Amino acid sequence: MKIVYFGSDVFLSCFEYLVEREQVLALYTYHNDEDYFNEYNIVSRAEELGIPVHYEAIEPDTIRRFFLEEGCDLFFIAEYDKKIDIPEDLAEFRGINTHSSLLPQGRSYYPIECAMARELSETGVTMHKLSNHLDSGEIIRQRKVEITEDRDSVDIYLMNAVHARQMLQEIMSDFETAWGLAVPQAEVQEYWRRPEDSLLTVTHDMCVRDVLEIFRKYNSMTEILIRDRIYFVTAVMPGSAPLPKEEMRIHDTLWLYGLKDGHVRVSIFAKNQKNRK
Questions:
Q1: Which residues pair with 201 in a beta bridge?
Q2: In this predicted structure, what is the pLDDT of residue 194?
Q3: Burial code of 10-41, b = ≥16 C-beta within 10 A, e = fewer?
Q4: pLDDT value at residue 33
Q5: Please, what sign has the CA dihedral across residues 188, 81, 230, 273?
Q6: Burial zone of 83 (CB within 10 Å; 0-12 exposed, 13-18 middle, 19+ buried)
Q7: SS3 of 89, please?
Q8: Using DSSP, how many helices (H) and how many strands (E) does the chain show?
Q9: Which residues of the chain, if any, have pLDDT below 70?
C-alpha cells in the first residue's frame, strides 16, 4: 500500500512497521515543547529513507493529489496535532487515526494526562476511521492499559505504542476485512481540555510527594516558577534535606528547589512564552 504518515515519536514503532513493509509517500509531523515525545527520531528515520518531511498543515488540494494522482491508499495518523479536513467529494479517501484513549471516552490532545488527572484506573489506545469530527470515527481496534501507581504517563504512552504496533500488524494482514468490520462509537463524549495550570505547577508550599505525583502524571508538561520565569520540568529527583534558600542553581538546566519537607532536584528548560507576571 501507498501511505501518507502523520505523527511523532509517540508511535514510532508504527512508522517503522510501515516503512519496512509498505511505501510511505510522505511524513507530516510537528513540534511541541511541552510534549515528552517529539519528532526527532521519526524525522531522522524519514530523512535516512528519503521520505519527504512536512511541518505545515496539509491542504485539501494536496489530499486530493495524494489519492487521485499519486495512488495513495491510506492516511495513517498517529499522534498528530492538526485536524485533517477530508474533502467531502473524495470517495477514494481512507484514513486511520491512532488515539491514546479508550474511545469514545478521552477525546483530547492530552488523553493520558487527562485520564491520570481524573484518577482513572485504565486507559488504552484506539485505532479508528478518520472522520471530520475529532476522535469520532468507527473503531477498528482497541487495547486497554491499566493505570497503576508504579506507572507514569510516559510508561502509558510506551505501552500504548507496543499495543498500537500489534494492532497495526493485525489490520494490515487483512486490511479490507478489518476496515469493513469497524464499528461505530457508542456515543460522542465530552472533549477533555488541557489540565489547568494549577494542577501542573510546582510551588514551594508543596511536599516532595506532591511534586513527584505531579511529575508522574504530567512529565514534561510539569511547570515550575523560578525567578519569575516559567520552565518545563524534564526530570525530578527527591531530596529530604532543607535548602539554605528557596532555589539554588547548579547549572543552567539543573536546580535545587525547596519544598515544605525537603527539596527536589529538577532538570528544566525555558517555556516558550513571556515571563509570568
A1: 223
A2: 93
A3: bbbbbbebbbeebebbbbbbbeeebbbbbbee
A4: 87
A5: negative
A6: exposed
A7: coil
A8: 8, 13
A9: 272-277
pLDDT attached to residue 86: 95
The predicted-structure confidence for 125-134, as pLDDT tens digits, reads as follows 999 999 998 8
* Strands of the 95-99 sheet, one edge to the other: 53-54, 23-28, 2-7, 74-78, 95-99, 122-129, 139-146
2-180 is a CATH 3.40.50.170 domain? yes
Closest CA to 247 of 263, 269, 268: 263
Q: Which residues contact 63 (CB under 8 A, 6 or more apart)?
A: 75, 84, 86, 87, 90, 93
* Predicted confidence (pLDDT) per residue in 49-89, tens digit: 999 999 999 999 999 999 999 999 999 999 999 999 999 89
- In whole angstroms, what is the distance from residue 153 CA to residue 155 CA? 5
Domain regions of the chain by residue span: 2-180, 197-270
Residue 274: predicted pLDDT = 33
Running DSSP on this structure, what letter comes out for residue 132?
S
- Contact assessment for residue 152 and residue 221, using Cβ atoms and an 8 Å cutoff: no
Task: Please say whether the beta carbons of 136 and 185 come within 8 A.
Answer: yes
